[in-house]
Amino acid sequence: MAAALKYNGQEDLDLISVKEGAKTILHIPLSTAYELCNRGELPHVRLGGTIKFDRATLVRWVRTQIEASVHARVQEKRPVVRRFHSAGSEEAGTPEEIPPVDWR
Questions:
Q1: What are the mean pLDDT values of the chain's consecutive 10-residue runs (104 residues total)?
Q2: What range does the domain containing 23 cover?
Q3: Burial class of 15 by CB neighbour count within 10 A (0 to 12, 13 to 18, 19+)
């Protein structure tokens, strides 16, 4: 069951268990969620002996991970464009990489 708390008097925190976060938001095994928390790779809070996620923070984290992954794949698939120096120049016949265009 989720608990709503005030944080600095400004917003409600919707704290959920690791089990709920792993199952409904992350779609990963519970053991993987605990491992990622222990490595500091997931945003979480420890309350006593329990680990909790703030639902909104976890959803934002997932979206950020997806955007980073998509951006990385786009970067990998960009073709490398090369042009050759014209005849008569000192570098004639040697390729020069043209920097890729950022399409964002």
A1: 53 90 96 95 93 94 87 63 55 53 54
A2: 3-98
A3: buried
Residue 82 lies in a domain: yes
Q: Give the 3-state secondary structure percentages of the chain, helix then strand then coil, rounded to 5.
A: 40, 25, 35
- Cα gap 19→17, rounded to integer Å: 5
Please name which of 54, 59, 62, 61 lies closest in space to residue 6, comparing C-alpha atoms. 54
Sign of the torsion angle spanned by Cα atoms 84, 87, 89, 92: positive
Task: Provide the terminal-to-terminal Cα distance of the chain, rounded to the nearest Å.
Answer: 41
Instruction: Confirm whether 23 is domain-assigned.
Output: yes
Q: What is the pLDDT of residue 41?
A: 93
Domain count, the chain: 1
